[in-house]
Amino acid sequence: MKTDFKNQLWLSLGILVAAIVVTAGAIYYFAGDLGRQADAIAAQKNLMSAQNNASFELAHLKNDGPKAADYTTAMNELWSTEDDLIGFPQWLQNVGSNDNVSAESVFAGTPTSPTGGAGTAGFSMTAQGTLSDLTLFLVDLESRSTGFLVSIGSFDLTYQAPEYRLSGEGTIYFR
Questions:
Q1: Domain range spanning residue 7?
Q2: Structure pTM?
Q3: Nearest CA among 108, 90, 112, 117 for reference residue 170
Q4: pLDDT in tens, 12-65
Q5: Is the CB of residue 88 less than 8 Å from the CB of residue 123?
Q6: In 3-state terms, what secondary structure has residue 9?
């Protein structure tokens, strides 16, 4: 009977230890699987959030499309074409006369056609007037006057009594 009891005790303890080991292994496996599933759920949630934000932005862009078309049309009206360059020397003289400056210009080089952006044409100019009038002329030429988009690349300013003389080179941008 003692041997039956010992055998029964060892058998019960063995079953209990085996059950604990199997349970611990199952918990370890399912905990790792649960972590992977939680990571997958979090990644899916982030993807859904990004797609939701993209849909929201697309709706706003579609809503703003007609406004952008209006602005594009307005900008194209302000931007000269290559054919309009013929009027540039007269335009420069008019800007100069508005600022009490005598101005002349000549095209320099061959214009580059617009390919995916703006076309450019080089020019050189001379202007005469007081220092304050020439300063105002340069500001008007590059940023205030409408008609042509112009940038001045370089210029020289010399004093020739009783006024100043400005010689410069620049670029005209066109569509």
A1: 1-78
A2: 0.57
A3: 108
A4: 888 888 888 888 887 777 777 777 777 888 888 888 888 888 888 888 888 887
A5: yes
A6: helix
